[in-house]
Design a protein that fits this description.
Belongs to the short-chain dehydrogenases/reductases (SDR) family. InterPro entries: NAD(P)-bd_dom_sf (IPR036291), Sc_DH/Rdtase_CS (IPR020904), SDR_fam (IPR002347). With 259 residues, the chain is an alpha/beta fold. The protein has one domain: Rossmann fold (3-Layer(aba) Sandwich). The chain contains 7 helices and 7 strands. The protein has a 7-stranded parallel beta sheet, with helices on both faces. The longest helix has 30 residues. The radius of gyration is 17 Å and the shape is globular. The protein starts with 7 loop residues before the first strand and ends in a 13-residue tail after the last strand. 49% of the residues are buried.
């Protein structure tokens, strides 16, 4: 029930970190995968890595489409090329996220806040709309939004980012209610994961940060990818509208969000 052979997935923000790990996980389960990101060179290197690391090594199951998630044209190109290349778009993973704003919200640059919401929330909805029109509306599918524990608990320093992830969680619930039964929509909410994106949250002392977690370590991209692989599979066929916390237990301690 966890096999994804014959299904095509589109994973955004997938040139590195969590997005790349998710793409690798879906590929290992038999799916064909389109990866997107802004920088063509990094994206091409990621595609090469996916092919070389995959047991089958089938380049025909990996497609790289460079583009900015905040661009209507780039989103449309990624969706169209996925359907053209693989004949379907059964899985959408909205992983792209940015955070150019730190500190108190009362001091936040509103331009930066608008950009955060445009990329983290509006672009995710844009991908859903396009995937629905291109394939899922008629054939069904599964959508995963990569949120954050910052969307569940106050963080202080990454407040604008956290507010955008809270909106993404709410968006997940609305879409799940509207798109069932054919399309399942879920979110995952990681805490601090060891990626380049999250380096500022642990670079001054990983052991000290990890000590606050019951599991006594930070997350890895592969931790998140395994959960996503399950949620998009038939093994999770009665799960929709959920935001699954994957945080090493840190919220259970009463600690703040992050990631």
């Amino acid at each position: 029930m966890t096999d994804l052979t014959g299904r095509a997935a589109l994973v955004t923000g997938a040139s590195r970190g969590i997005g790349l790990a998710i793409a690798a996980e879906l590929l290992s389960r038999g799916a064909s995968v389109t990866i997107t990101a802004r920088k063509p060179d990094e994206l091409a290197a990621a595609a090469d890595k996916l092919v070389s690391d995959d047991a089958g090594g089938d380049s025909a199951r990996v497609l790289a489409v460079a583009g900015n998630a905040g661009s209507d044209e780039s989103r449309a190109e990624a969706v169209d090329k996925t359907v053209q290349a693989f004949g379907n778009l059964s899985i959408l993973v909205n992983n792209t996220g940015i955070n150019p704003s730190y500190g108190p919200l009362v001091e936040a640059d509103l331009g930066a806040v608008r950009k955060i919401f445009d990329v983290n929330v509006v672009a995710a909805l844009g991908f859903v709309q396009l995937a629905h029109r291109a394939w899922m509306g008629e054939h069904g599918g599964s959508i995963i939004n990569v949120a954050s524990t910052a969307g569940l608990r106050s963080t202080g320093m990454i407040a604008a980012y956290g507010a955008s992830k809270a909106a993404l969680i709410r968006l997940t619930e609305e879409l799940a209610a509207q798109l069932g039964p054919g399309i399942r929509v879920n979110a995952v909410a990681p805490s601090v994961v060891k990626t380049k994106f999250a380096t500022a949250l642990y670079e001054r002392g990983e052991d000290k940060v990890a000590a606050a977690y019951p599991m006594k370590r930070l997350g890895t991209p592969e931790d998140i990818a395994s959960l996503v692989g399950f949620l998009v599979s038939d093994a999770a066929s009665w799960i929709t509208g959920e935001t699954v916390r994957i945080d090493g237990g840190v919220l259970a301690t009463g600690g703040g969000g992050g990631g």
